[in-house]
Amino acid sequence: MSSFLHGPFAAHQNPVLCYLPFVDVAVPAGFPSPASDWAEDRVDLNQRYVPHPEATFYFTVSGDSMIGPVSGRSIPDGATLIVDRAREAVHGDIVVAVIDGDFTVKRLYQRHGRLALMAENPAYPPLVLGDEQELLIWGVVTAWIARPQ
């Protein structure tokens, strides 16, 4: 399966705040917890995940190149990316990049004068740009949202 990104979709610059109950308790897997008894605060997801609304965009991931063996680093097909263009990309960041006019999402490798874009899926080789290819780091992925499967 090849990989594509749908977007960018601009974040609303003045979103209506939507404070949802925040339960500040780690939820143990496999052990029931009456979490509603522990609700202490309310949180708006825009405030938590969108520090720069004017520079934040959403993308929808299409493809399996970022599905990897490490669950915390794996971005599933259909996930919504939150991308911050105000943040400077550094080695190890997951970035939305534009290569020859096409968007892609990959992990940035930038060490010892070498630059590559790495998939999380080991079936995909690193993208090392040729001399005539053009790369733009469009933004840094700060979070993603995926529906449970």
UniProtKB/TrEMBL annotation:
InterPro entries listed in its UniProt record: LexA-like, LexA/Signal_pep-like_sf, LexA_repressor, Peptidase_S24_LexA, Peptidase_S24_S26A/B/C
Any one Gene Ontology BP term: DNA repair
Signal peptide interval: none
GO molecular function, one term: DNA binding
Record-annotated Peptidase S24/S26A/S26B/S26C domain positions: 21-141
Domain of life: Bacteria
EC class (word): transferase
Pfam family, one: Peptidase_S24
Enzyme Commission number(s) of this protein: 2.7.7.7
Listed Gene3D superfamilies: Umud Fragment, subunit A
Keywords: Autocatalytic cleavage, DNA damage, DNA repair, Hydrolase, Nucleotidyltransferase, SOS response, Transferase
Keyword Hydrolase recorded: yes
Similarity field: Belongs to the peptidase S24 family.
Protein name: Translesion error-prone DNA polymerase V autoproteolytic subunit
Source organism per UniProt: Chitinibacter bivalviorum
Annotated gene: umuD
